[in-house]
Design a protein that fits this description.
Layout (H helix, E strand, L loop, with lengths): L1 H33 L16 E8 L8 H18 L7 E8 L4 H14 L3 E6 L5 H10 L4 E3 L14 E2 L5 H14 L4 E7 L2 H4 L2 H11 L2 E8 L7 H10 L3 E5 L3 H13 L7 E3 L6 H8 L4 H8 E6 L8 H9 L18 H20 L4 H13 L5 E3 L2 H9 L4 E3 L17 E7 L5 E9 L7
Parallel strand pairs: 1-2, 1-3, 3-4, 4-5, 6-7, 6-8, 8-9, 9-10, 11-12
Antiparallel strand pairs: 10-13, 13-14
Helix pairs in contact: 2-13, 3-4, 5-7, 8-9, 9-10, 13-14, 13-15
Length: 449
């Protein structure tokens, strides 16, 4: 028995040593991946006392599957910097993905399952126009703070206490697209929007904005985004001879439509103005590896987008953090393309806002910390401007008021907790990143000024 006991003890010791080595390697990997990141300061000897979870609720499969990885990247990037700075009140931040499949009917059971299986859920991000109308009421019923990437009109006038929106409504997005068309001197436009809920929310405001701007809509096509060919719709657009096409059709649908229009139009691009969601690495790669090619595409494509502060203090850290996730997140062909992607930029900022509100309120419970999100966004007299979680925590511990200035700038929320901001006209570069072609001003539901 003594020999057997000795053998078992040795095996147990070996097992423990292996476990310690695995933990050590994991810690070293985290430290190594964040060494040299501007705006971070590792807390020596941090011992996490529990954890909290941030859930990215979005399409990870289905026709809008390109959206989910953008939001997952934002979560991983923000969590990495937060954990390096000691976590949120010594609690480690973990990220979780919840696949809505881009379908409101599938989203609700997926969210219910999330609540049944997730402990210490502190925040939800993502929730697109595909499913927001069905899941936001569930989040509010559970008193869960949510930062959603939805432009649906219902959130323009209905107050959900736990709902925050860091991007303007689709109506403002549509106004910005029309402003680009006017700036370019276009007189006639065609509309081409997917039949998914997220894309259809643009159609009515786009029609209204075009009419107000004196543009003639010569074709209005609804695209079945589950289809693989759009010969009928492409022919209708080409035959209408528009000066430009205003569109949102994510993934393979947008690629197929533009490829067919290009071929039917004698291998010539009709200028395209896309929504901010079309600043997407998957879409860019699909179009440019097809018959259109890189140069034809980038010469004829513009998209409205929220202004990204490349020269601001938050951007260097954000850039390094996003690029550091390239081996962790699947479904992104070019991580450089996420540096200006609306979802990644604003949700990264949203997580920082929420995390700092948790520290400020000394609570990870949504009911307690949500009011401090608005205080940190608004700032106020004597507030110190901070551009990272670590800097914000340092200022709060020093007893100072703070205002967060993120990659997307400052966020000023209206009474429905939507943040309106400045738009710009973005164009792709050959490497899949984007560059601003000019400011569009602050775009509201009716005008850009």
């Amino acid at each position: 028995m003594d020999g057997m006991s000795l053998t078992m003890t040795g095996a147990t010791s070996t097992s423990r040593m292996r476990m310690r080595l695995v933990l050590l390697v994991a810690v070293l990997a985290l430290v190594a991946s964040t060494v040299g990141l501007p705006g971070t300061s590792a807390v020596a000897g941090t011992k996490f006392k529990g954890s909290i979870t941030i859930a990215a609720v979005a399409p990870f499969t289905g026709v809008d599957a390109a959206l989910g990885p953008k939001y997952q990247t934002a979560c991983y990037a923000a969590a990495q910097a937060i954990n390096l700075a000691g976590g949120i009140m010594h609690k480690q931040v973990n990220c979780k993905t919840v696949d809505t499949r881009g379908d409101p009917a599938d989203a609700v059971p997926a969210v219910r399952q999330m609540y049944a299986t997730t402990s210490n859920l502190a925040l939800v991000i993502g929730c697109t126009s595909d499913e927001a109308s069905t899941v936001v009421p569930v989040f509010d019923a559970h008193q869960t703070v949510s930062f959603c990437m939805t432009g649906e009109a219902e959130f323009d006038s209905i107050h959900f206490p736990y709902f925050f929106r860091l991007v303007p409504p689709d109506a403002a997005d549509s106004v910005a697209m029309v402003k680009i068309a006017k700036n370019k001197g276009f007189k006639t436009v065609a509309l081409a929007f997917g039949n998914d809920a997220g894309s259809q929310t643009f159609v009515k405001p786009a029609l209204q904005a075009a009419k107000a701007a004196g543009l003639n809509v010569v074709s209005n096509q609804t695209l079945d985004i589950s289809a693989t060919t759009f010969q009928t719709e492409a022919q209708a657009i080409v035959s209408a001879h528009p000066d430009a096409i205003l569109m949102e059709a994510l993934g393979a649908a947008g690629v197929a439509l533009l490829s067919e229009i290009f071929q039917l139009n004698g291998n010539k691009m009709i200028p395209v103005i896309g929504t901010s969601a079309m600043i997407d690495p998957v879409f860019y790669t699909g179009v440019t590896t097809g018959p259109i090619g890189v140069q034809n595409f980038i010469n004829a494509f513009d998209a409205d987008n929220g202004t990204v502060n490349f020269s601001g203090p938050a951007y260097p850290l954000y850039k390094k953090l996003v690029l550091a996730q390239s081996r962790k997140v699947k479904g992104v062909p070019n991580f450089q393309g996420l540096l200006t992607a609306n979802g990644t930029v604003h949700l990264y900022d949203g997580i920082n806002l929420a995390a700092l509100a948790m520290v400020m309120s000394h609570s990870t419970t949504g009911k307690v910390y949500k009011a401090d999100i608005l205080k940190i966004a608004a700032g106020g007299p004597g507030a110190v401007v901070v551009s990272s979680y670590a800097a914000g925590v340092k200022a709060l511990k020093a007893g100072k008021k703070i205002q967060y200035f993120g990659v997307g700038g400052k966020y000023q929320f209206d009474q429905f907790q939507t943040a309106f901001g400045a738009f710009e006209d973005d164009r792709f570069k050959a490497d899949g990143t984007t560059v601003s072609a000019g400011s569009l001003g602050l775009c509201t539901l009716h005008t850009c000024k």
